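Justification of resources, computational component.

The compute hours requested in this renewal are based largely on the per-chain cost of generating structure records like the one below. Each record pairs the submitted sequence with a full structure-token output. That output is archived, and it is also reused by downstream analysis tasks.
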Amino acid sequence: MQRKKTLFAIISLILLATLLLSACSGKEEKIKLSEMEDDLLLQTLTDLGVEIPEVKNVDINSAIRKWIVELEEDPTRPSLSVSWTVPYNLYEDLRDAVIKYQQDTK
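The structure output for this chain reads:
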């Protein structure tokens, strides 16, 4: 009877240690930029060096999220073809940020 309890305790300890080690060694995957809440996304972009311009009568935040989704799918996609340099520069800054963020999460 005592041997069964000891054997059960040893097996339980081994199982518990295995579970703890596998939980600790599991690499937690970072969330995609496009899946972040607005506040966290803007803060992360700022941390990555992106300056978001204030543009009157334009919802720049919805454009940013759309561009980030595009760039996460293909960071090499062609730049915007616009004559206004503000969105072009923002798009290129977002490209750099997406690439940096993806490299940091690997």
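The two ends are 51 Å apart (CA to CA). Residues 2-25 form the longest helix (24 residues).
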